[in-house]
């Protein structure tokens, strides 16, 4: 059984990638959010800092007429991405310093 831990922000970025979902749909998925199992979670309603654990996730591809393990699909998607999302928790007092540091990196973009 494949398992994967992600933040709410990470899984929402994957879920929003239309190229990944053109011909695919989730048939069955066991997901834990902050340690609580939930089979009916709406990915778009997750908080960015939610701790998400996927297991037993099956995705059917209508075009290929076959199924895939969702964890495998996400890992393959992560490998081919040219950028990464980073979720950082910092004290309110340090936010200006962190944002200033991020702005020194050409490819960095503050999402929220």
Structure description:
The chain has 4 helices and 5 strands; from the N terminus they run βααββββαα. It is α+β, with helices and mostly antiparallel strands. It has one domain. Strands 1, 2, 3, 4 and 5 form a 5-stranded antiparallel beta sheet that branches. Strand 2 and strand 3 form a beta hairpin. It is globular. The chain starts with a strand and ends in a 10-residue tail after the last helix. The model has no long low-confidence stretch (mean pLDDT about 90).
Mean pLDDT: 89
Question: In percent, how helical is the residue content?
Answer: 25-40%
The overall strand count is 5
Note the beta-strand portion. 25-35%
**Span between termini:** 34 Å
Could you give a short account of the major beta sheet? Answer: 5 strands, antiparallel
Radius of gyration: 16 Å
Number of domains: 1
Alpha-beta classification = alpha+beta
Shape: globular
The stretches of 5 or more residues where confidence is low (pLDDT under 50) are none
SSE order: EHHEEEEHH
